[in-house]
Amino acid sequence: MTASTVVQKYLMGEYPASRDELVDRARRQGADQAIVSLVRNLQNEHFTSAADVERALGEEH
Question: What is the pTM of this model?
Answer without folding.
Answer: 0.88
